[in-house]
Specification:
Elements lengths: L17 H12 L6 H13 L3 H21 L1
Length: about 70
């Protein structure tokens, strides 16, 4: 099974809260750094005050959409 390689995107402490910066750092240590799009999504969640339930539903919908596209190919 191949794994898509992500380019490492640095997270500036001024642009993200401490938890996002820590999470991004841990993802990078695990070899799965967040993409610029993923960072922007999490920053939007914070900026717009999304509830945890709404965030989870959004992420699961995005993952499901990617699965449908991959299946179509």
């Amino acid at each position: 099974m191949s794994r898509k390689q992500h380019d490492s995107v640095p997270v500036a402490p001024a642009s993200a809260n401490g938890l996002l910066a820590e999470a991004a750092h841990l993802q990078e240590i695990e070899g799965n750094p967040l993409t610029a799009e993923e960072i922007a999504t999490f920053e939007m969640f914070e900026r717009e005050g999304w509830s945890p339930e709404r965030r989870r539903a959004h992420i699961l919908r995005r993952v499901g959409d990617r699965g449908c596209v991959a299946a179509a190919e």
